[in-house]
UniProtKB/TrEMBL annotation, chain A:
InterPro entries: ARPP-2. Residues 7-286 form the ARG and Rhodanese-Phosphatase-superfamily-associated domain. This is ARG and Rhodanese-Phosphatase-superfamily-associated domain-containing protein. It comes from the Bacteria. Pfam families: ARPP-2 (PF22549). It comes from Yinghuangia soli.
Amino acid sequence: MTTGGFALTGLSVRPSQVWGAVRLVPLVRDQPIAGLRLDRRVYEAGDPSIVDVGDGTVYRSYIPHAFVATWSQGTEPSAAFGTQLQERPATPRGAKAQTGARAIRRMARRTAPGRLRFLPLHLAMEGYLALHFGGPTTVWEEWTDTAVRHGLSPRVEEAYCGAQVRGLADALRAFEIHPGQCGVALYVADALAGVFVVPHPADYRALHTTLLEDMYGEVLFHYTTYVAGVPDYSAAIDADCVASFADLRREAARQSLDWAHFHDSAMADGLLHEGTYTYEHIYRMGEFTLSRMLPSFRLNEENHIGELISGPGGELAYCKTFRLSPTQAKRGYLLSRLHEHSWDLLATAQALGTEPSQLTHRIEAAGFTGLLRQDVVDRLARTGRRDDAPPGDGRSR
Amino acid sequence: MERREWVACEDTLLFVNAAVTSTGQREFRDSEQAQHMSLAFLHEYMLGNYRELYAASLALDVNDHNAALIVRHLLVSSRDLAPAVRRREGALIARRLQVMAPQRVYRLFRELARLGVNNRRTRAIMREWIAQRPDPAFDAVKYRGAVKATVRHAHLSAQGETGPFLFAPLRRMKGFDTPLFESWRQAHYAASALYDLPYTVAEGFAARHRVPRPEFLRRITPNLTRVERLRLQGSAERLKVDEVRTDLGTMPLTRLASYVLALPREVRARRHDELHAAMTAAARRVAGDAVGRWGHVVAVLDDSFSSFGSTAKPQRPLAVALACHYLLKALAGSYASFWTSGAPDPLMVRPSGPTGLGDRLIDALELRPERLVVVSDGWDNAPPGLAAEVLRVWRARLDPAGSTSMVHLNPVYDADDFGVKRLGPGIPTVGVRDAEDVPTLVELARFAEGRSGFDELNRYLAARQEQFLAEGKAS
């Protein structure tokens, strides 16, 4: 596990294309990543599947497809798109023979030498769901038996399917893919919804439409219903600077650079300028590493979780991020703070600059019910009322 | 110019642009419903506010879909019109129906029947149009259902055997003297009779008699129309029927461009010289006397992904751009063109990539052409708005004298904006559906620029009407 920042290494930004409230920013590679390709395996849509995490834990989720990463081993050259002999993909028709919910073994699983099947965004999501999943590490008297024995189970989070995000389908259809494009940054009402990067332009072309089947945070779903359209970042040339065609050409080129600068410094700021992501390495494929990242859960700021494959030189070969909603970020924040203080309620409350009674309210308001013993909560509420605040104030929080 | 006149001028151009481009089909960015709704509004608006200008647009290059809509709207009511205006409208309608494809006219007649439009004027127009058809028996066979509906709706008397042919049940038909009717009757029972019939009718009988497709194509070839022949090129080649093969150079320019783009790129590469020669010949035929008269022309052509159009009109915007390329080459003294993707060979273009018009415009303007033509759907997105900025700055700083005239031809109707999408203010934009109309559309562009007044537009429209009606009398 390591901590560090996140950067779109090896990718450059091209002018965005806007459709209603959706803005798509193309990410272009000069050179495709050698030795790694992505493909997709389609599962039956609409039917929630059960995923075996591997340590006895299982979870149930909507899974439209899996990605298959193929990497070249040793000296064998990486085949160009279309010339590769690929195993027949499991089509929905083939999957019909199974009855009931399908069980998928492990989220990242080696299917053949040099080939890994993983569920997009699920690595990231699972990382977030499993955050301090075990519950209290020290058995303080405030925590219930259930919390100590079973941890936070069952843990539930909600996300919206891209098809339900208004205008996203049209935006993806009308989007004009740039030559050499290997990724996209997706904005809804100019809030960053996610970044999607693949190793090769041909992979991107094939996987462009899967953005519609991805999951998106609740905030973005609501933003599309509030915002009718976002403005284009229009070019503006100062006529006084132009005296010849060379000047005009230079000014025109500057427009793209200005946009790229603006994008990285302002629009993707929430993702790119948090320096304290926690990376967990999941799988090593030759010289590539599949890992997931968790943010430091900053309150009132953007928080993105994600999964990525990085190359030997640190270049980003694959990446998918998910923007947490404020309540989700709050949950992560509370769990992290509790964990930092070994789940000691008093110490955590002190560190957060609040009262223990208020902290219990925050924990319950965040959706973690049944963790704290009711008598403790009541006692803390009474003390809080008597000592510090006028009657009734403790509960109205 | 008075404000009222200025508005009228704008509205007319807006409508003409819409009526030239939109066919009520799905576009890259609009659904079919959006196109229909937007167009329906424009038609009602024009009919209510500028009925004479609305009728006059029949003399312009509006497409058949819109011409049929205009005729329908005009025929629904003419109660409050002065006799002279009514006569003029009638003449324009009759003339327009003459140049329209017959199947479209019959569709219009059926639509009028469905709406219950059966005033004296409508019946007279139907009667006169049917009377001037060169071969009534052929029409009766090829468009049997439509002819039947029209005859019934307009209370026409069917001449000779047409009456029994249209209305008698098949079992009571004991034989006709008209050869085409007789073939049609026999084709119900014998496969040998169907080769005298028009292709579309024969195709149904061939399916009924289970005639093998290659044999059917081989024998029906003499009855194919020009466009049917073009449409069958691909399938005839697959079935190895050589009879259908034709000289592509005789085909209409834009249709030919669509045909070329529908071919796989390997085939285009293999038949490159043949296709190039055919496109050049078709373009020269359209250019006519004006070959080489346009001076130094530079074109910027859009082959971005959006030029794919939609499945309803596949690659139409790209086909228009390709046809324009060849037409402009024929019209120009010296010519250069730039595709947005940077494709070097126009015959190998395919719709892909973003629309980076700005950079291509700089390339084009640097050649200092007399005339700059842009063919694009107007969605300039890499970066957005650069084309407008380049043109603005270039006009202000590098070409203040206006030595280059420019026009933007847009093949796509934007339903939300009720018009064709403009590149920017001050850039004359006109809609285009067929590259064949480009020479006349370029004239219209000077009104779009806003430099010419309403009187001039009226004079222009009057001249076009006179010319349009005169052509009818001459033919």
